[in-house]
Amino acid sequence: MYHYPIEFIPEGKNSAAYYSADPPKNLVVFVHGFRGASVETWNDFANALPLTPGFCRSDIIYYGYDSMEGQAFDQAADFLAFLDRHSTPRSALRPDNPPVYEKIIICAHSLGSIVARFALLESIKAGFAWRKQCKLVLFAPAHNGARVQSLLMLSLPGFYKVLGSLLMYNRPVIDDLRPGSPALVKLESETQKYRDTGEAPILSAQVLHAFGDKVVHNAPFCYDTFCTGNPVRGRSHVSICKPEMGIYDTPIQIIEALL
Amino acid sequence: MNQQINDIRFKALALNFRQLPYIGRAAAAFEKAKETGELATLLRFHGDEAINLTEELYFRDDMDFFIGYYAIVTAALLTGYVSAPAPADLVAEGMALLGNEHVARYYTEYYPLILPQVFKTAVLSPAATGKDLAQQELDRQFELLLLLLRSRMKDEDIDSFLFLLDDGAFRVGNLGWVDIARLWDLIGDNRELQKIREEPVKYQQVLSLISGFSKFINYLNEYAALLKRASYNPLWHAVAWELEGYWFTRLKTKSGDTLKQGLQRLGELVRAVSMSGNESNEPLEEWQSASAGELVQAGESLNYLMQEEHQSLAQQLNL
Known about the structure:
The complex is a heterodimer of chains A (259) and B (319).
Chain A: E1 7-8, E2 16-18, E3 26-31, H1 45-48, E4 58-63, H2 72-86, E5 103-109, H3 111-126, E6 134-139, H4 148-154, H5 160-167, H6 172-177, H7 182-193, H8 200-203, E7 206-208, E8 225-226, H9 250-258
Parallel strand pairs in A: 3-4, 3-5, 5-6, 6-7, 7-8
Antiparallel strand pairs in A: 1-2, 2-4
Chain B: H1 3-18, H2 21-36, H3 39-42, H4 54-78, H5 88-99, H6 101-110, H7 114-117, H8 119-124, H9 133-153, H10 156-165, E1 170-172, E2 176-178, H11 180-187, H12 190-198, H13 204-229, H14 234-243, H15 245-272, H16 282-305, H17 313-316
InterPro entries (chain A): AB_hydrolase_fold (IPR029058), DUF676_lipase-like (IPR007751)
Organism (chain A): Taibaiella chishuiensis
Protein name (chain A): Putative serine esterase DUF676
C-alpha cells in the first residue's frame, strides 16, 4: 500500500487527500478549472497515482472549490490559505508527519491555473518560506483568456453544460476569463515583474496545451515552458488533463519527472 | 486482509463520516431523547403526524446521517473493503443505536433501509481472507463511491432540489410558491431563464434549485457509471445501490418520472435556443449536440438506476 485511504479535508469544497503511507518527500496538489470537481476533473489520476511507484513518497491532494463563486483572485486567496496550511504534512491517519516537504508540485487546469498563479504571487509578497518548494504544471491554462462562449457551452463537464451556459454569463469569474481583463493583465504584469529574479523558478510553469483548444488561447505566457514541443493532438480542453492508463500517460509522466 | 490496512480503513471511515459535527450532534441528541422519553415521538412516521417543528426536522436530519454512517460501515464490511473485527467502540455504538427499538422501527417499518438491518450480522461475521486483484479494484471503486456520496451529502443545492423532489416548495419573491412543476416551467422557458440570469441575487433560491437539479443529474450519471463498472460482482453492486436505496427506490416509485419530465422540458429548451446578433453559430450547434447527448445519457442513467433487479440485496442476503 503506497497511500492511505482517501481522507476528506475541510478546506475548499470536496477536497480529498491520499497521504503517503511512508514519510512523504513531496506534495502534489491538483486544482481543477471552471465547474470542475476536485477529483473527477483528473480522471485516472486518482486510480493511477496510488499504484505508481514514482508517487510512493508523495502526498496527493485534490483541491476543490466553488468555481462559480467570487472572482479568480478571491479563489486564489482561499487556495493560498489552503497551501499555507498544507505546506507541512498533516495526515490524521499517518502517525508520523515530517516537518516539511522537499517539493510541492501544483497541477492546475484552465481557470485553476489563474487561481494557482495568483496564489503563488501572493505567497511571494507574503514571504512564505514554503513557496521555494513549489513548481507549477498547467494544463490548458486560461492565463491568455478564454473564449467565454465556448467556455460555457463546450467545456462544462457532464450535465452542467446543458443549463450552465444559459445561466452563468453574469458571474464575476467569467469577466476574469475574458482576454485582456483586468485580472489577466495584472496576472501577466505581476508575473513578468519576477522574470529575472530568484522567484522566477516558482512562477515559471510547465505547460501542456491541447491542439486546437476551443476554449482557451494557446500562446506563450511570460517565461513558461511547454512540456511537449507542440500542443498535444487528439486531446481537447477538457481531456488534456485526464490521463488514460496505457493510452495517454503524458500528464502522469510530466509530474513524475518533477518528483 | 492485512490487519494494519484494516485498522486504517476503519479509522478513515470514522474520520470521514463519523467525526462530523452533525453526527456528534445526533449522538448527543439521541442520548438526551432516550433519557427524556421523546425518542418515539421524534422518530415517528410522518404519515401518522406531520413533522412541522424545525427542531424535529433538524433532529431527524441528523439522525438520518447518524444511521447513514452505520449504513456506510455495513456496506464497507459487506463489500470486503474492511473486515471484522471492527473497533470495539464502533460496534458498541452501532449496536446501541441500531438496536434501540424506536430507531429500529424507523429504519425497518417507517423508512425501510436494508443496510442498517444487517449491521449486526456484518460486523460479527468472520473476517474475509486474501486480497486478490479484483478485490483491490473494488476497494478503489469503493473509495470513489465514498467520495461521490460525500459530495452529495454536503451539497446545499442538491439538498434544496431534493426537498422539492420530495413534494416540497419554496416561496420565491414575485414567483410565489415554486414547487417541482413550477421549476420545470421555469427551466423550459428561455425568457424566464434570462430574467433569472439578469438578477441572480433576486432569484438566488431558484438558481440554487436549478444548480441542484444539474448536480443531482450529474451525480446520478456518475453513480450509474460506477455501478456498471462493478456489475460483474453482484453483491458489491447491490450494496452500492443500497447505499442510496432510499432515493433510488423513490426514483422507481415516483421521482424518476418527475425527473424525466424535467429532462424533456430541458430538451425542448435546448432545441429552441438560438444565437442573436453576429455571434458564430458553431459553438451553439456543438453545444446543442453535446447537450442532447447529455440528456439522453441522463435518461439512460435514470432507467438503469430504476431497474427492478437492483433491489436485490435483500435476496442476496436471504432476508
